[in-house]
Amino acid sequence: MNGQIEHTLRGSWTSSGAAAAPLSPSSLRWLRQRIGLVETTTPAVPSSLLEVPGSSFADTARAELEALLGEAHVLVDTASRLGRSGGMSYSDLMRRREGAELAVPDAVLLPSDPELVQGALEICARHDIAVVPFGGGTSVVGGVDALRGGKSAVVALDLVRLDRLVSLDPDSRIAVLQAGMRAPEAESLLAAHGFTLGHFPQSFERATIGGFAATRSAGQASSGYGRFEDMIEGVRLATPAGEWRLGTAPASAAGPDLRHLAIGSEGSLGVITEVAVRVRPAPRRTRYEAVVVDGWQVGTDAVRALAQDRVLADVTRLSDPTETEVQLAMAGQLKARALANVLRAKGIRNPCLLVLGWDAGSRAELKHRRSATLRALRDVRTVRLGRAVGESWKSHRFSGPRQRDALLDRGVCVETLETATHWSGLSELRSAVRTALVRNLQSGSKPPIVMCHVSHAYETGASLYFTVLAPRDSEQALAQWKRAKEAACDAIAGRGTISHHHAVGVDHRPWLGVEIGDVGTSVLAAAKRAVDPTGILNPGKLIRD
Ligand SMILES: Cc1cc2nc3c(=O)[nH]c(=O)nc-3n(C[C@H](O)[C@H](O)[C@H](O)COP(=O)(O)OP(=O)(O)OC[C@H]3O[C@@H](n4cnc5c(N)ncnc54)[C@H](O)[C@@H]3O)c2cc1C
Question: Which domains are assigned to the chain?
Answer without folding.
Answer: 42-158 (3.30.43.10), 165-281 (3.30.465.10), 285-396 (3.40.462.40)
